[in-house]
Amino acid sequence: MAKKKEVNVAVVGASFMGKTHSNAWRKVDMFFDAPVKPVMKVLCDKEQSLLDANAEKWGWQESSTDWKALLERDDIDIIDICTPNFLHPEIAIAAAKAGKHIVCEKPLANSLKEATAMQKAVDKAGVKHMCGFSYRFAPAIQSIKNMIDKKQLGEIFHFRAAYQQDWIVDPDFPMVWRLKKKHTGSGALGDIGAHITDLCQFLVGDVSEVTSAMETFIKKRVVTDSDTGAWAAKSSKKSKVYDTVDVDDAAIFLGRIKDANTLATFEATRFAPGRRNYNCIEIYGSKGSVIWNQEDMNYFQYFNRSDPDLLQGFRRVSACDTGHPYADAWWPPGHTIGYEHLFAHEMYEFICGLKKKKANYPTFADAVQCQRVLEAVEKAAKSRKWEKVK
Amino acid sequence: MAKKKEVNVAVVGASFMGKTHSNAWRKVDMFFDAPVKPVMKVLCDKEQSLLDANAEKWGWQESSTDWKALLERDDIDIIDICTPNFLHPEIAIAAAKAGKHIVCEKPLANSLKEATAMQKAVDKAGVKHMCGFSYRFAPAIQSIKNMIDKKQLGEIFHFRAAYQQDWIVDPDFPMVWRLKKKHTGSGALGDIGAHITDLCQFLVGDVSEVTSAMETFIKKRVVTDSDTGAWAAKSSKKSKVYDTVDVDDAAIFLGRIKDANTLATFEATRFAPGRRNYNCIEIYGSKGSVIWNQEDMNYFQYFNRSDPDLLQGFRRVSACDTGHPYADAWWPPGHTIGYEHLFAHEMYEFICGLKKKKANYPTFADAVQCQRVLEAVEKAAKSRKWEKVK
Amino acid sequence: MAKKKEVNVAVVGASFMGKTHSNAWRKVDMFFDAPVKPVMKVLCDKEQSLLDANAEKWGWQESSTDWKALLERDDIDIIDICTPNFLHPEIAIAAAKAGKHIVCEKPLANSLKEATAMQKAVDKAGVKHMCGFSYRFAPAIQSIKNMIDKKQLGEIFHFRAAYQQDWIVDPDFPMVWRLKKKHTGSGALGDIGAHITDLCQFLVGDVSEVTSAMETFIKKRVVTDSDTGAWAAKSSKKSKVYDTVDVDDAAIFLGRIKDANTLATFEATRFAPGRRNYNCIEIYGSKGSVIWNQEDMNYFQYFNRSDPDLLQGFRRVSACDTGHPYADAWWPPGHTIGYEHLFAHEMYEFICGLKKKKANYPTFADAVQCQRVLEAVEKAAKSRKWEKVK
Amino acid sequence: MAKKKEVNVAVVGASFMGKTHSNAWRKVDMFFDAPVKPVMKVLCDKEQSLLDANAEKWGWQESSTDWKALLERDDIDIIDICTPNFLHPEIAIAAAKAGKHIVCEKPLANSLKEATAMQKAVDKAGVKHMCGFSYRFAPAIQSIKNMIDKKQLGEIFHFRAAYQQDWIVDPDFPMVWRLKKKHTGSGALGDIGAHITDLCQFLVGDVSEVTSAMETFIKKRVVTDSDTGAWAAKSSKKSKVYDTVDVDDAAIFLGRIKDANTLATFEATRFAPGRRNYNCIEIYGSKGSVIWNQEDMNYFQYFNRSDPDLLQGFRRVSACDTGHPYADAWWPPGHTIGYEHLFAHEMYEFICGLKKKKANYPTFADAVQCQRVLEAVEKAAKSRKWEKVK
After folding, report:
1. Cα–Cα dist C204/C207, whole Å
2. Tell me, what CATH number does D78's domain have?
3. I need a labelling partner for C198 at 20 to 30 A (CA). Which of B325, C290, C374, D382 fits?
4. How far apart are CA A82 and CA A231, in angstroms?
5. End of a domain among A134, A157, A173?
6. Distances in Å between the alpha carbon of A135 and those of A141, A168, A345?
7. How far apart are the C-alpha atoms of D313 and A219, rounded to whole Å?
8. Within this chain, do residues C210 and C295 fall inside the same structural domain, yes or no?
9. Could you state, in chain order, the average pLDDT of each consecutive group of 10 residues for chain A (390 residues)?
10. Cα–Cα distance between A294 and A297 in angstroms, integer?
């Protein structure tokens, strides 16, 4: 058995997303038969303590506090950016210039301007680039994409999505970097609204115009020492006790789809008690309908208008059945997978695509297109009218 | 046992809604102990054949093809209007002038102007008036109303509603009166969007402004002889084969609630395959959340933020349990009720209210307020900006 | 329009079941087009107060405290028995002798011996007879029966049923007639186990042998004045405070199906907190599976092994869709029906069958066959081995 | 940071379960903070090709085709047995004699006699021992166990379980080692019935007696070259085309619980179309009820009889919420986990227990007790009467 070519990976950022990606890189080679073998070379973070605690545990060969140094190394092929949002552009642009392939968590950047600059950088450098819209990689979403491509849902009338969470409903929940515009760009909109926007564009088509409302239900939050995001922690340790939440707690918007009659509704909120991480989409078309939500991610509902009379109904499809390209890599049908597996699928597609023209994953271009929508949503919330996505 | 005072009822309109109301009037006295006893006096329709077929079967003492004659009779106390929408104003205003108490199916009228005139007429006449927003009378909705009144959900962040049907998805489904503006006012918006708008206003508060999109997916429908609505049938029998659908197939809108930070999203559509009559609302508040849909109407989901850690989750509450004022009238817990029971509750509340100041049911004023919202939705769809509800 | 032949009905028993049947008789003519018209002639009960309160309200022309007198009247065609179980045999046998057609609530009798005598009486008299296994009349059950008859489920491997309630879990719930052997025969077994046994026999085949366990979790109950069943109330008003529960609170049993390899499991219990009236069956066959429960009675789940790969799953079929013979009588698809409608279907089938050879409803013969199974279950619980159903 | 003590692991068997366990061992150190660090030393299988393909990929330092050689090595602390069932006793007994701690997949052995010998061997050797009843390690099951221990469900009335699969419904599915008694002991009973029996004993109490039925729906299967289980493949490659299935396709049984009035029903089947891996338990107690199934493993349903009137219902509890000892190791609430995580929990508990007296996992003693029940079930199926579990 000829040995596979290896590609060396460095992850920048050793918090929540860094852990998620580390786990994904580790699983790829064990479960999938990709044309190349990813090697977990370096875990990088500015906090040495995080590296000490995690680098070896998570399976990395080395660790580093200097992401710039990584770019100078010849033995690093892929830079995988898992830092807070505001650092994405600087790292990505530098990595592109250094000729590294890039994985970057979403949202690509805190502004459309920066995101566009990133896209230009990767295009110019000719490197591969992926933005982490992980939910595309749910087996059910892939099945739905496949159905839509084959016209099994017919003409799409409605896309209806809600991404609901409840982790900050408590007014005593403290200030964190995800609630400050300078670190995160926007609130629920950019964090989770981005996911349902991307799913819409992946499955149904580009959003061409939007109207919206945004709201911050709790305007001030107490500042504590223990910010959950290490990168931002320093700047929020201030003497005063309360800080202003300057991003949205919730964003709702309507959209039209380019060159189609499709109506789209979106709701992104961190104020839906009981919804821990409820990312739910509904698609209604002339031949049938599908419904999916992340909390029940191994299944999706499918209504087929061609089913016989008196036997029609939404079918709870087991997405991970035998024959599904992702599911076959894991366990037998009915032996469920979870959130972390989405990331393994994502990294698998990325390394499969290193030698291909066509990306089977969300590129920076997709992320920029998503950012355009989000920017239009913010604009519409202020202008109080429909805004074109430019 | 002293005999109860009787109130005599006449229903105008012997099609679908006439049947629904007849059944409801029949059930009230059998199952509820109201202070007065409704007597099913006259069923009225302009089609003699409908009366011949149905008047006795449905339990009516008499029948008539002349609704005006009913108004002159002293022995009719309540006029219950179940005709197509465009006839509501004429009949209601005349009935008010004749001093009759009035039940009128929704939407109250095809325009805000007419609806307002109707409200003025009943106010001037001092008669009791109810508009048939029947879903208010689901036991679950009453329980939710009660919870909100008691502040059990806290401050409301989100109201999210969809009323989805699929009866005209087939492009071969023919032209019917519900698809012509002059007979029906608007399409999905007025027919089913009205219900979720009313539920929002009943449960959460008045909608103060809206932004929207409306769409007609299938622009032309074949004309047939057998319109399902007798009243409009004559006028639609024309020589040409196709007729234009001039009302909306779907309407989506966002709203703000008066004097609150609540965000509201609405979707009313007849183009959601698999959704036969899916009237679904979600309410998220600072203390908890509730979710209900008509297709599973005996239950609602309730999330209580005060439930103990690790035992939190949406609870599928059996709304018709012992102790519920409506449910107790019917069967033991778990022995479900259905769509038709909503109307019995509605008529029960109306006759209970004949001697009371405070209406425990939707009045013409509520219906006018609903109409204001729908009119703002239509305006916003054209102006492409947020419109105040005036 | 020629007037339909009328058939005159008398219901004996004006408590819960009497009300349910009265409501059903009233609905039949309004909603169904049967070949004859049922006339609600007499409501009979030994308690005059119940008749005073209910006879007119429920739509009866007359009332009577003497069921024997009814049998002598020429103008009564159908005797519908809704008394406590122990009175069924006497009334039914006398009614048969008097040439009346008979509807009798289930269980037919408190013992197989009595049930058999009843069957003999109706056979000898040549009258029509139906036993009230109402769940057969759920639209979903009729659809499932139809599927099985057409071999759409293939060879049946498993029938798995549970009928769970929770109305007596509270140890302070008082003694009632349903907990005394002499009034009721058996407990959960005869009351609700009978229903799932009948559904098994209706859908899958006769139970040929059983093994079982029965349990009385709460052995003594406090005696109160207000027994819910009027007929038995007198005898339970005793001086002592506690009375022994001498029937089963729960019965579980396994069965084999005649001339088949099918395995059947049954659970009937009044001790399942949260299950108000959860009558649930699952059927697994070589071509597909179905699942239904009464608390969600408008739907059933259907798995079709022939569905395409990667689109397989249980389909939540809307049983009451257009084209279903029962559903078409009521409301449009998605406008749900409830428990009481089962009884209207039942009475409809009975009067349709008055002139037919083949009964499209459960006869006394079916009820006797059910009783044989229940008797074998009781025997097996004592013998502690498999018992043949004789 | 002091380095943790390491324990060296060898897995024997490189098929499905070997992969599952390898993945689990790999995850333990990354996600949990156990007192010792497991080192993945050797993967062992008699098929060199499986080792070549998998050993490195799955994270093992070495590979070996000789399990006996492993026992002689001082640097192996834990032997984890993932071979087909019939090899468990020989390997386990030898490993015990060699002083190794032992993890063994379930069922422990193909007969009670062998299982008992295994238990004696580990007891004599004084080594730690765990049998892989992995479903105990679902976060929901741990929560339910905790609730029962705290008496939150009160006295248990009913345990009702079904473990349903459908992978051999197709009559063309070929002969595999899991369908031959000599390799597997029993069929559905030992493979999946063992899991629900163990869950009953873990949660509710020991089964003291049983009555049962077993069935083989498809009696002969075609023999192919590609048995899915490598260990047994050789022996089943015979010249004739069909081979007899000599184990059960389904087993149903009733049970009584030791020193309690609890009734238990069990159904284990590979013939339930649509049920890919549906392991479902229901527990009804005097204070409340719980329901869980593996296909929706991140949640369980909980009914609390103390919930307020009119707000009662089954609550869909998110088991993996903040504060759950297993869930905290993974992702935020609502970010689901899957089947493979159960095994990580299992290995975590085992290595945590290496220095403790009390096992927080299923021991060989638990497995023997389970085997006793299974053996009584088989006996009862033949004797056709209730059999004591001895």
Report:
1. 9
2. 3.40.50.720
3. D382
4. 11
5. A134
6. 7, 22, 10
7. 35
8. yes
9. 87 96 96 96 97 96 98 98 94 98 95 97 98 98 98 98 97 94 92 97 98 98 67 47 95 98 98 98 98 96 98 97 93 95 98 93 98 97 97
10. 4
On whether both D163 and D290 belong to a single domain, the answer is: yes
Place of tokens 């099994």: A152
Q: Do residue D98 and residue D119 come from a single domain?
A: yes
Q: What is the DSSP letter of B190?
A: I
Interface ipTM: 0.94
Residue C227 pLDDT greater than 90, yes or no? no
Nearest CA in chain C to D164: C284
Q: Is the peptide bond before A107 cis (omega within 30 degrees of 0)?
A: yes
What gap in Å lies between CA D190 and CA A128, rounded to an integer?
A: 51
B302 interaction partners in chain D (CB closer than 8 Å): 311, 313
Give pLDDT tens digits for D273-289. Answer: 999 999 999 999 999 99
- Residue B181, helix vs strand vs coil: helix
**Residue C269 included in any domain:** yes
Q: Are residue B212 and residue B294 in the same domain, yes or no?
A: yes
Question: What stretch of H or E contains D150?
Answer: none
Q: What CATH number does residue A320 fall under?
A: 3.30.360.10
Residues C308, C247 share a domain? yes
Among residues A134, A165, A200, which one ends one of the domains?
A134
- Whether residue C315 sits in one domain with residue C166: yes
Q: CB within 8 A of C144, min separation 6: which ones?
A: C203, C283, C290, C292, C300
Q: Which residue has the tokens 């069932």?
A: D85
Prediction pTM value: 0.96
- Domain hosting residue B231, numbered range: 138-388
Say how many domains are in chain C: 2
Those residues of chain B whose CB sits closer than 8 Å to some CB in chain A are 155, 157-158, 160, 162, 164, 169, 211-213, 215, 217, 249-250, 252-254, 256, 261, 263, 265, 267, 269, 271-275, 282, 284-289, 303, 305, 312-314, 384-386
**Predicted pLDDT of residue D2:** 65
Cross-chain CB nearest to C59 (options B20, B30, B340): B30
Q: Spell out where chain B has E strands.
A: 5-12, 36-44, 62-64, 78-81, 101-104, 129-131, 156-164, 207-215, 220-222, 242-244, 250-257, 263-269, 278-285, 288-293, 299-304, 313-318, 387-388
Task: Check if the beta carbon of residue B85 is closer than 8 Å to that of residue B108.
Answer: no
